[in-house]
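retry 2 of 3: previous attempt timed out while embedding iron/sulfur cluster. Reduced batch size to 1 and resubmitted. Inputs unchanged:
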Amino acid sequence: METTMSTTRQLQDEIIRLKKEKDICILAHAYQSHDILEVADYIGDSYGLSEKAAVAPQKTVLMCGVRFMAETVKILAPEKKVLLSHSEADCPMARQFDAEKIKKLKEQYPGYAVVAYINTTTEIKTVCDVCVTSASAVKIVQNMKEKDILFIPDCNLGAWVAKQVPNKNLQLVSGGCPIHAGIIKEEALAVKEKHPKAEFLVHPECIGGVSEMADYIGSTTGIMDYVKKSTHDEFIIGTENSIVQHLQFECPEKKFYPLSRKLVCHDMKLTTLADVYHCVKGDAGEEIILAEEVRLAAKKSLDAMLRLG
Ligand code: 13P
Ligand code: SF4
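retry 2 succeeded.
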């Protein structure tokens, strides 16, 4: 079979056959390529993927995304075999902080609750109080009983949350997504000028100077849902460029313009359809193994996220 598969469709058919035969659930983040989304059981943003982790009936979960997403599944569903589609697929923001740095910050801000973006390592999840995602951060921070909050690692997401929850005192620490935060205001102004009729949709990982011009700010799924409901015909997409491609498939009658051609997450792009095939076949993919005491310590902040979100 291996050497005779020549088309994307044939490879996809074989993946679908193998995942059923081997009881594998394929979870795919929305930044994965379109051919991968077509074989996934569930596509979503970080919050949606976390919710699906525990309820998927299959014994094995293949996470097509980056490391922290696969680790989140393992933390929430330890009885499942969890595979990361490509062992080098990591989110660079997830490693911007370590437990030692958090310890120092806690000493600097005694009494503050620590809120960590889910784009963090499992180690960070063991020392924070609550995790948040872009889709759930505002609601979670609003629902927390604490007023003083140390928000790590994405200061752009944190600033966006702080604006919407003015009754809370958010302390932001420098950190963020190197891809989204690399887009400057002048680039956004130029694209808006080129497409004056387009609605401007951005991910909250963008800098404040870019977000403040947006018609909508939200998670990857939030952006896609917004487009489907909007009566507008043209959109500038201020997040990873795969979302432009997915939207073109889903809404072929509408027009989509990338905010910048630099909005490419190379870690998210590491996984190919051939990798997915090899993972379901059983000769690729990294199995996520976590020490039980670490998993349990990290689970508290994810449980709090699902409870408050
Ligand atoms: P979402 O939760 O919005 O999918 O964001 C994840 C991410 O890594 C965005 O860069
Ligand atoms: Fe991480 Fe940014 Fe890539 Fe999202 S786009 S996975 S935050 S590096």
